[in-house]
Write a structure and sequence with these properties.
Shape of chain B: globular
Oligomer: heterodimer
Helix content of chain B: 40-55%
CATH superfamily of chain B: NAD(P)-binding Rossmann-like Domain
Number of helices of chain A: 7
Largest sheet of chain B: 6 strands, parallel
Number of domains of chain A: 2
CATH topology of chain B: Rossmann fold
Structural class of chain A: alpha/beta
Number of helices of chain B: 5
Strand content of chain A: 25-35%
CATH architecture of the largest domain in chain A: 3-Layer(aba) Sandwich
Radius of gyration of chain A: 22 Å
Number of domains of chain B: 1
Structural class of chain B: alpha/beta
CATH superfamily of the largest domain in chain A: NAD(P)-binding Rossmann-like Domain
Chain lengths: 220, 132
């Protein structure tokens, strides 16, 4: 694949290095001459000095034959514009933006950026995963399909403890994919599976029923 | 009309003052509190220290009830992002965006923003002045 990376800071540099090692054709666009020099010294001629939000720079970079553009500068507005120029003017099929302010994630999605990566949100999600008091973790959003994979931990106080799956009324659409239980290991549940305290339930749900799903399984 | 102006530089401040004089309800945003020195002492609008690409700050400035939004900071990308938030997320009826780079201006005009490029306008004016 031909991948253009806008922003040659730490994220851009390591991303470029990894993608080159994986055999991709990579070009980094960076404005700062020192950063350009460092990338050229260490990775070879894979850097173009310029403004990755400018159409002329992207034309020089051959954006119209790029399979993907990843914007990883430290400024959200620059990442947004780089992705939009790539998408609209050069028809780059896939655009990925790094987001610094997690509140911008929703905005970027509404404005047509394919994928957003927020380091802040990734860390927050890991905290949610590690902190057992938080009963629901969103593991993966299947955005185009309107589904997400979530994990719910069943607290000892939950009304479903000791009940069979067949006797628990879960909202639709939702499917239980696995139950990870301390005593029983991981199992694919059937109608007769009985919930135990501290079980971890992996499920595929639609975002609209997520809250109800959590309420049923945790009782909170 | 309730207007939010993002960026209280010379242009933003002058526009704020002109609209204020005509009796419009004007809120001016800038990340630098010093920028408000451009506003005249009799300005009756509201200056707000805040970032026009931050949703919380925009709501604090009243974006949900605004009739118009103008982005006049020095940063093209900041203006473009703020205007898209105002137009597409909050449905502000009238949104005008300053974009210095003519190529970017052309692109975002095609994407439906009302844009003003001072670069194009002043180059034209200079040329006209030279030809007179």
């Amino acid at each position: 694949m031909y991948i253009i990376i806008v922003g040659g800071g730490k994220v851009g540099y390591y991303l470029a290095r990894t993608l080159i090692n994986e055999g991709h054709e990579v070009l980094v666009i960076e404005q700062n001459p020192q950063k350009c020099e460092r990338i050229a010294d260490e990775l070879g001629t894979v850097v173009l000095r310029g403004d990755g939000c400018e159409a002329s720079t992207l034309a020089e970079a051959g954006a119209s034959r790029a399979d993907m553009l990843i914007a990883v500068t430290g400024d959200d507005e620059d990442n947004l514009v780089a992705c939009q120029v790539a998408k609209v003017r050069f028809k780059v099929p896939r655009t990925i933006a790094r987001i610094n302010n997690p509140k911008n994630e929703r905005i970027f999605k509404r404005l047509g950026i394919d994928v957003t990566v927020s380091a802040t949100n990734v860390i927050l999600e890991h905290i949610e995963h590690e902190v057992p008091t938080h009963p629901l973790t969103r593991l993966l959003e299947l955005r185009d399909l309107g589904l997400e994979i979530i994990e719910v931990r069943i607290p000892p106080t939950s009304p479903v403890v000791g009940k069979r799956l067949a006797d628990v009324k879960l909202p639709s659409p939702s499917v239980l994919a696995a139950v990870i239980s301390r005593g029983r290991g991981a199992l694919i549940p059937n109608a007769d599976t009985v919930f135990q305290a501290n079980d971890e339930v992996l499920a595929v749900v639609s975002p609209e029923v997520e809250a109800e799903f959590r309420r049923v399984l945790t009782g909170a | 009309m309730k207007v939010i102006i993002m960026g209280c530089g010379r242009v933003g401040a002058m526009l704020a003052w002109m609209l204020d004089r005509e009796g419009h309800e004007v809120t001016v945003m800038d990340i630098d509190p010093n920028a408000f020195r451009f506003l005249p002492p009799d300005f009756k609008g509201i200056p707000i220290v805040g970032n026009g690409i931050d949703e919380d700050d925009l709501r604090r400035a009243g974006i949900e009830e605004a009739d118009a939004f103008v982005a006049a900071t020095r940063g093209d990308n900041r203006n473009v992002m703020a205007c898209q938030i105002a137009k597409h997320i909050y449905g502000v009826p009238k949104v005008v965006c300053r974009i210095f780079d003519p190529i970017r201006e052309d692109l975002y005009r095609r994407l439906g923003l009302v844009t003003i490029s001072p670069t194009v306008i002043s180059a034209k004016l200079f040329k006209e002045a030279l030809e007179q």
